TrEMBL record:
PROSITE patterns: HTH_ICLR, ICLR_ED. It comes from Streptomyces echinoruber. The keyword DNA-binding applies. GO terms for biological process: negative regulation of DNA-templated transcription. SMART domains: HTH_ICLR. This is Transcriptional regulator. It holds the Pfam family HTH_IclR.
Amino acid sequence: MTAETSQTLDRGLRVLKLLADTDHGLTVTELSHKLGVNRTVVYRLLATLEQHSLVRRDLGGRARVGLGVLRLGRQVHPLVREAAMPALRSLAEDVGATAHLTLVDGTEALAVAVVEPTWTDYHVAYRTGFRHPLDRGAAGKAILLARQQSPSGPGYAFTHGELEAGASGAAAPLLGVTGIEGSVGVVMLSDAVPERVGPRVVEAAREVAEALR
């Protein structure tokens, strides 16, 4: 800590990061140990964060991330979209298919940026704001692939007809971007995705990840 920083704010942010890294929440005692402060300090931090809906406590007393964090997260989408656009434009023009950036929103996949190719006679209309389950469609399956402790295979997902009849998709997960879970992919009217598209979406996902770091 330096003279220009706030110790209380720093601790509060550390609480949020710790809670974001666990699926089952943390008790006051667990947070106290992880932060290296006494329980009274933790109680005060949690009470303040609860007032802003950034933290909630369940009936068992375990603290979890609150819905207020989601509201803050939605404001990040325009910034993420802007950073991703150059890589998406390049991908759409190169492959000749609609390119998209998809992020996790709760239990769903949410398209936050879409770029359509300019030179094709026809392409799939895929709109920003489109949602679908994580276990359906290439974008969601690529995200689930990244959640594996030891991902195997080529590092991208191919699907056909899961979200729209006659449409195929390919997507690769965003890797190494703290606090963001998502994928970059393309969707096209085709019975199958050409093999070269898989490595190309991996490359685009890497470019987007670098832009977001």
